[in-house]
Amino acid sequence: MPIQSVRNGLRYDLAASYQSSPASGTSFVAGLAFEAKDADTRSLAYRGGRAFAGVRLPIGESGFYTALSATVRHVDYRIAPTSADVKEWRLFARAAVGVPLGPKGLFAEVAASYTARLYNSGSGLRDYD
User: Fold this and answer.
1) pTM for the full model?
2) What pLDDT was estimated at residue 93?
């Protein structure tokens, strides 16, 4: 079986979020989601959930802004009972400053981000960031 086909399967994602703009130019979003993935090879199938949030804050009246966002995701792979169980946490954080490039809503962003994967000790996989 070719390597590409073992990942074949449906992916389901159900998310709910709340978005608001309580002050002029300020906006935020927060949400929760459930996801599941089938695959021809059982060890590549998973189920999990995630929480996410973000905020965008204006800097003065000139159109500049800061944006912060984060996602925490938990994935539980559907490993066969005879294999090591694999569970992972995925963390993502991003901070940005936006600069307006004209009156039409076009912006350039300078951003820094951080990503990490943390595995359970029984999986035999190494954490990384």
Assistant:
1) 0.81
2) 98
